[in-house]
């Protein structure tokens, strides 16, 4: 199956999932995740009308940004972000979806002030008990939102989460529902809209749509099997 066919198939599956959930497909976007795929694959996706791509690692984002510096790509960081990587984030990224601690917010703010720019951010929420998952515990989110409100360089748009790695669909939906409810409570707390819920990946995006996701992080379902690590 070609890249164009896979994109078309995902778009149709998202449309059908929205229909089943009683939602407008226009409310749900697909964020292609290009980690481990080369910049030539990104160019192919750009030819299909895509301009926004997600990467887990800052170094990989930087390498692709330099290779594709003749384009107007918007790069989104979705992986765990170390503070020593924020210089390149402030230069190349348009959004960070894995903001999960105050020292990272402080480091981003410092670099963004130096660069004279702002950055869209999502707070990553740990919605399951899995030790391998990162993010803020739901009960820690309200205080964190108050802390980061002082940073004018950080444009808070909503929340991101990774659901539990299980075959139990109810437990997966519970993860997504928990974050949607947290978003609603946070809007009341802050007094402004948080329109983005980045929830759902290739294996569970239909469940995320049913629970209110506005953005799906899709990698292998769009680009096929990932290349082996170098």
From TrEMBL:
Needed cofactors, names only, are: pyridoxal 5'-phosphate
Keywords from the named record: Pyridoxal phosphate
- The answer to keyword Magnesium applying to this record is no
N6-(pyridoxal phosphate)lysine modified-residue sites = 35
Q: Does the keyword Membrane apply?
A: no
Q: Which residues form the Alanine racemase N-terminal domain?
A: 8-227
InterPro entries associated with the record? Ala_racemase_N, PLP-binding_barrel, PyrdxlP_homeostasis
Molecular function via GO = pyridoxal phosphate binding
Q: Name one Pfam family in it.
A: Ala_racemase_N
HAMAP family named in the record: PLP_homeostasis
Tell me the function of this protein: Pyridoxal 5'-phosphate (PLP)-binding protein, which is involved in PLP homeostasis.
What the record says about family reads: Belongs to the pyridoxal phosphate-binding protein YggS/PROSC family.
Q: What is this protein called?
A: Pyridoxal phosphate homeostasis protein
